[in-house]
Amino acid sequence: MAVLKLRYLGDPVLRAKAKPVARVTKRIAKLLKDMEETMYAADGVGLAAPQVGVSQRLIVVDVGDGPIHLVNPVLEEGEGAEVDREGCLSIPGVFGYVERYARVVVSGLDGNGKPIRVEGSGLLARALQHEIDHLDGVLFIDKATGLVQAGEEPGEEPQPGGEAPSGRDAGQPGAGGP
Ligand SMILES: [Zn+2]
């Protein structure tokens, strides 16, 4: 496995619509493992292939329950709505609040080319939606409110390299302190 070079905001690959994967080859399986290692090395909870410069429909997610590899992921169902804080490994130090489905069902293929369905709520649902957005060239800053640079929020610690939500804090943007 190898840690791949991350692409950052301004790189056109992040704005391209990624192509479907025709077949889950050994090369694709290796890329998924490398993406997983890259995600862990950056302390992220998810990573999409465009973030390592590959414009193909591949994502990896791990919110603490083990890695999930998805090829050609499709959002099949979404219900409820939740607003929470998000960041992105490709936009370091920037955070904002994004409304997402509270629960989703995503279908796709796993790293062996077998069809899988992933059902998730909370952080998993958020991470899946964030990563699938990447495949369509959509970044969380397109949807976020209350965008801030880390360190600008009173009472907040900077969060280096966090992909997707911080998992703590429940403040609303602009709500102000006590
Ligand atoms: Zn991201």
Main attributes?
single chain; 178 residues; alpha+beta; Peptide Deformylase; five-stranded antiparallel beta sheet; globular; binds zinc ion
Quick take:
This protein has helices at 26-41, 122-135, and strands spanning 46-48, 58-61, 68-79, 82-88, 91-100, 103-109, 115-121, 145-149. With 178 residues, the protein is α+β, with helices and mostly antiparallel strands.
Element layout with pairings:
Elements: H1 26-41, E1 46-48, E2 58-61, E3 68-79, E4 82-88, E5 91-100, E6 103-109, E7 115-121, H2 122-135, E8 145-149
Antiparallel strand pairs: 1-2, 2-3, 3-6, 4-5, 5-8, 6-7
The protein binds zinc ion.
Report the average pLDDT across residues: 90
Radius of gyration: 16 Å
Give the bound compounds.
zinc ion
| SSE pattern, N- to C-terminal | HEEEEEEEHE
